[in-house]
């Protein structure tokens, strides 16, 4: 074999080896990209994906679908809720933060008690006919405009449906609630503006016990005081006339309470004055004074403790700046007296020095004390 043939054979072998390496690299890259797409919801809710979910956590799930009573499929990015035919024992489904645009695939889940589908793209309440035992339903952060499709759920206790688009059409968007058995209703941050929802819907819900309405145009976010509640109940009893009469009664009760408070305060003042007179009278007949009384009162004990603390911490509470200012003032005053020995004696009054002549009627010395700002410190 010539040298050229040998070179060509060697070159072909190298190309073949490089081709194998390239194929392995492409396969690894494709696998990695599939895993990344799975994380971003590039897959569908297929039986294979559900099986992968079961195999990923053997402590959470049984291998047989029908034996599992919980299913966690949050943050998958799945667009359709399906392939749950074998999950007949399911009691709780956690499917928040996906891309479901409708409720479906639950016809076999007849034992389902809790369904969490918040933060999806659901536009309508439907597909719950196969869940007669449903007790808790969470549909927060969706695009639902009307409450419906719940009348057949005779075990439904809690409906949480915050931050949707319910209420644009007034009472019609919520009137279906009257036919339900809901005890706890949370419709915060919706578009409920019609005040008729109170008498037409919420009052007629026989099982309603807890209601959350904050964040709707219907409310002004003001606290409801007991007086407001009494006035509202009076209006329901007898209309505007009954409300006015109730407000008059409330005003009379407030005035009576104010008078009782004023009388109680005056009685307290009179009692204190009487006790002081009695104490002073007893002290006049006592041989001891307040300072020599062997029985120390609470006020004297506290005062003694304060004085003792001041003595023990004299160095800590000493005002160094004031001491320095006083020392400087004494030093300067001493120099001036030395320089003016012949002048009459002066004394300090207020903000100026006065001599003996000034007391005899001489003209006042208008000079100001130089260190008056130091005294203020």
Automatic annotation (TrEMBL):
Keywords per UniProt = Cell projection, Cilium, Leucine-rich repeat, Repeat
Q: Where is this region: Disordered?
A: 275-377
Question: Coiled-coil stretches, from where to where?
Answer: none
In the UniProt record, does the keyword Repeat occur? Answer: yes
Q: Record's PROSITE patterns? A: LRR
Q: Does the keyword Ubl conjugation apply?
A: no
- Compositional bias segments (type: Basic and acidic residues): 275-288, 298-356
Cellular compartment(s): Cell projection, Cilium
User: PANTHER family from the xrefs?
Assistant: LEUCINE-RICH REPEAT-CONTAINING PROTEIN 46, PROTEIN PHOSPHATASE 1 REGULATORY SUBUNIT SDS22-RELATED
What is the name of this protein? Answer: Dynein assembly factor 1, axonemal homolog
Organism of this sequence: Durusdinium trenchii
């Amino acid at each position: 074999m010539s040298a050229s043939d040998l070179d060509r054979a060697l070159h072909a072998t190298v190309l073949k080896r490089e081709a194998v390496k390239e194929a392995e690299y492409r396969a690894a890259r494709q696998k990695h990209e599939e895993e990344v797409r799975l994380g971003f919801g590039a897959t569908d809710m297929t039986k294979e994906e559900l099986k992968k979910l079961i195999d990923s956590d053997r402590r959470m799930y049984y291998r047989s679908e029908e034996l599992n009573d919980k299913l966690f499929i949050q943050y998958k990015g799945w667009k359709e809720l399906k392939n749950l035919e074998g999950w007949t024992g399911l009691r709780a489904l956690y499917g928040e933060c996906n891309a479901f645009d409708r409720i479906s695939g639950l016809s076999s889940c007849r034992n389902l008690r809790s369904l969490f589908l918040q933060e999806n793209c659901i536009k309508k309440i439907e597909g719950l006919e196969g869940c007669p035992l449903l007790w808790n339903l969470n549909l927060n952060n969706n695009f639902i405009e009307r409450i419906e499709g719940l009348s057949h759920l005779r075990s439904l206790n809690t409906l949480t449906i915050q931050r949707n688009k319910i209420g644009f059409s007034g009472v019609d968007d919520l009137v279906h609630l009257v036919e339900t058995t809901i005890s706890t209703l949370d419709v915060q941050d919706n578009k409920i503006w019609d005040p008729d929802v109170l008498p037409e819907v919420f009052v007629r819900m026989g099982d309603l016990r807890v209601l959350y309405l904050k964040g709707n145009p219907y409310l002004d976010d003001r606290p409801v005081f007991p007086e407001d509640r009494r006035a509202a109940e009076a209006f329901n009893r007898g209309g505007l006339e009954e409300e006015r009469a109730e407000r008059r009664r409330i005003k009379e009760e407030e005035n009576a309470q104010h008078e009782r408070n004023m009388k109680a305060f005056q009685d307290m003042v009179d009692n204190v004055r009487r006790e002081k007179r009695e104490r002073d009278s007893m002290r006049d007949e006592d041989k001891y004074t307040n300072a020599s009384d062997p029985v120390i009162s609470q006020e004297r004990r506290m005062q003694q403790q304060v004085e003792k603390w001041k003595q023990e911490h004299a160095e800590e509470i000493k005002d160094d700046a004031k001491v320095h200012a006083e020392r400087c003032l004494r030093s300067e005053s001493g120099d001036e007296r030395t320089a003016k020995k012949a002048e009459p004696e002066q004394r300090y009054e207020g903000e100026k020095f006065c001599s003996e002549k000034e007391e005899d009627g001489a003209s006042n010395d208008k000079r100001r004390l130089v260190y008056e700002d130091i005294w203020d410190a």
